[in-house]
Amino acid sequence: MSAFELSKTRLFEGVWEGLLTAIDENGTKPDLGVTHLEKPLGELLLKETGEPNQWAVRIPIPVDLIGDGAQTFLIFDKDTGETLDSFTIIAGDAVSDDIRAEVALLRAELDLVKRAFRRHCVETT
Fold it and tell me: What are the helix and strand counts (H, E) for the chain?
């Protein structure tokens, strides 16, 4: 189990922002890292929030990593190697068509399940 809990607050103007909280009340400032395709990302900003055992995390996303397809970033504790969170950026026309097709397929399957459930309810009453 991780000694920290990381939750996203927003993604704004190319910067992922989150809130890191130490689970242990005697937590020390962590050493975090970010990777993309198993390569370390440069800058990660960690700033105290004024609350005990809590830090604001800011990860600027390099423009050269944004492109067609899905780009996944892993945020991890360098001391333990444990992944605390991840985020994915999806871009490009081909991906948006795939997502729309997937949603349409899910809707069709849901309609099929609803019809089968209603038929089952009618037959068993």
Answer: 1, 8
